[in-house]
Every structure is written in structure tokens, then in C-alpha cells.
Design a protein that fits this description.
Elements (H helix, E strand, L loop, with lengths): L2 H9 L12 H10 L8 E4 L7 H7 L4 E5 L2 H10 L5 E3 L5 E5 L2 E5 L13 E7 L7 H14 L5 E8 L13 H8 L3 E11 L4 H6 L4 E10 L1
Parallel strand pairs: 1-2, 1-6, 2-5, 6-7
Antiparallel strand pairs: 3-4, 4-5, 7-9, 8-9
The structure holds S-adenosylmethionine (SAM).
The site of S-adenosylmethionine has 20 residues, from strand 2.
């Protein structure tokens, strides 16, 4: 999507994607991803919004870097938690820092490998699926270029059968294979079915949808 699309979502507070509490798949499957006793491992959260999940990761001892286009999201993230962040305006990123939790306001595609050299884990909820088909390959290629070998990713996708031209886009399990198999070992952890009376399927008028959770390890 164009940057303007997302800036408008944030300025109009049209942020239905924001969960406001810890994601259930993160809660249930993070322990399988992070090494036991290695909670200090750095976590990268691409297209992070103001996800509460980053506080959850921070509270478990992880250092966290989130990247997010919208400065509104970055400001809200700290303000809504009643925490203060040190703000360093800059190009291509303005950074917001609190303890070892950093939000970088700017474009994901401007990140360079040196920026994430201490990162060992990635949490992708509503990042890949926020991007239209034409951008997903570029997203995965760029992510692969900037994270170290051995990095593990918790990836959550969403699949449904109707063609919808706005995010969240449907990403099938086959597409996950196509996008990641060349550079990652892929484990499909679980699939969750959303019935037609689930708030998301209802809102979109879908018969049903499925969420899939993957653990990817960069070779
Ligand atoms: C669907 S939301 C998901 C946010 C978050 N992951 C969550 O679970 O709530 C996608 C987010 O990606 C941000 N975004 C879109 N394109 C971006 C880019 N190129 N660089 C950084 N952030 C981007 C948007 O502003 C939006 O907040």
C-alpha cells in the first residue's frame, strides 16, 4: 500500500487491526520460538503499529525494535501505556526509546543489515498480510537481507476465499512456502478456523477464514 493510505488510517483512527491486548498466538507459541533462558534475545517487530505485544515481549526481558511508518502510532504506543520515550528525530528514522524498547518511525524498506545485527527473533503479526501481493516478495527479500542467519520468525497469516482489495490480505499456506522456502526452514505450528460469526469474518462478510501460525528459521 502507499504510505499515504496508512498515514490516513492513523490520522483518522481507523485502526481496527489493533488488538489492544496480547495476541493469543504470541502468548501460546512464543515459548517454542525463543530459547529457554535466552529471554534477552533481540526481537524485531516489522510494521509494528502500536501493538501491545511489544510491551509483552519487553516484560519478558527481550530488547525490542519495532519499525512503523506512523509517528502517531509510535507516540500513542508510549502514551497509552503511561510511559515516556526519548525521541530522537532523524532520517530515515525518528526513534522513540524507553529502556531496551525502541520504535523506529519510518519506512521498513529503509532498514539496513547493520540496524538489526543483534536481532535473533522476529514477530510478524499483520505485517506480511498488510501488504498487497505485489509487495510481499519485496518485503520477504528485504527482511531476509537485514536479519542475521539463524533468526527465527513467528509468522501469523490469514486466509479466506473472497477477493478483498484492502488489508488484511489473504495469504495462503502455499504462498508462505513460495515466499520463504528458498531461505528458511518452515514449520507450520497451527491453524485456527474463524467461523462466520467471528467479528472479523462478520465485518468482511466472509463465510469463514483461517489463521495459520508458522515458525521460520533463516538458514
Ligand atoms: C495492519 S497494521 C498491523 C500493525 C501491528 N503489526 C499490529 O499487529 O497491530 C500494519 C502497519 O504497518 C504500517 N506500515 C505499512 N507500511 C509500512 C512500511 N513500509 N514501513 C513501516 N511501517 C509500515 C502501517 O502504518 C500499520 O500500522
Amino acid at each position: 500500500m502507499e504510505h499515504e493510505f496508512w498515514h490516513e488510517r492513523w490520522s483518522k483512527k481507523e485502526t481496527g487491526f489493533h488488538e489492544g491486548s496480547v495476541n493469543k498466538f504470541l502468548h501460546d507459541h512464543w515459548p517454542e520460538l525463543a530459547d529457554a533462558g535466552a529471554s534477552a534475545q533481540g526481537v524485531f517487530v516489522p510494521l509494528c503499529g502500536k501493538a501491545h505485544d511489544m510491551w509483552w515481549l519487553h516484560d519478558r526481558g527481550h530488547s525490542v525494535i519495532g519499525v512503523e511508518l506512523s509517528e502517531i502510532a509510535c507516540k500513542d504506543f508510549f502514551e497509552e501505556a503511561g510511559e515516556k520515550a526519548m525521541v530522537h528525530p532523524g532520517e530515515p528514522f525518528t526513534t522513540f526509546k524507553h529502556d531496551n524498547l525502541e520504535l523506529w518511525a519510518g519506512d521498513f524498506f529503509q532498514l539496513a543489515p547493520g540496524d538489526l545485527k543483534h536481532i535473533r527473533l522476529v514477530y510478524d503479526r499483520a505485517a506480511l498480510i498488510a501488504l498487497p501481493p505485489s509487495m510481499r516478495k519485496h518485503y520477504v527479500e528485504h527482511l531476509t537481507a537485514i536479519i542475521p542467519e539463524g533468526t527465527r520468525i513467528l509468522l501469523i497469516t490469514l486466509d479466506y476465499n473472497t477477493k478483498i482489495t484492502a488489508p488484511p490480505f489473504n495469504v495462503s499456506d502455499d504462498e508462505v512456502q513460495e515466499l520463504y522456502a528458498a531461505d528458511y526452514d518452515i514449520e507450520h505450528i497451527t491453524t485456527n478456523t474463524l467461523a462466520s460469526d467471528h467479528p472479523f469474518t462478520k465485518r468482511k462478510g466472509l463465510i469463514g477464514a483461517t489463521e495459520s501460525v508458522f515458525r521460520l528459521t533463516k538458514r
